[in-house]
């Protein structure tokens, strides 16, 4: 073995030739075997390059498809702005104070104000819709884990506002307030 070329494949070809003919080199047909082995290695190299390019194209295609189906929401509201966080937090503290009074009218008002606060936050985040119900419908559980809790709390708020004589008990009001708080915490507003 006079030449050693581990990168170009010559080393492998020499080893295969040695396997067939021993280290002495073989007879007059060793050139033919060497040509066949070279052709096979060239074929496999070509197949490798083909599948590598196919794999790279596949990755690019998948990334393109993921970008295409991604929701096109543009965040208008920057939750890191301290002024907006302070306003939301002070409004939330007022809502909790009103709820802690304990009368039915204060609990009703606390639930309605909490719903209004969440609606304002959703508007600032740029969710589409005229009402909070429409905005909630445009949000998926992947975007907001507590969206189903918000739907239930908003349903209680709707019954308070639209059903004459609807009385809310302390447990329902407390559950609604906790759900609104969970949503606002997840959105990092309070």
From TrEMBL:
Alphabetical UniProt keywords: Membrane, Transmembrane, Transmembrane helix
UniProt keyword Transmembrane present: yes
Taxonomic superkingdom: Bacteria
Bilayer-spanning residue ranges: 47-67
Name listed for the protein in its UniProt record: DUF4145 domain-containing protein
Organism: Candidatus Giovannonibacteria bacterium RIFCSPLOWO2_01_FULL_46_13
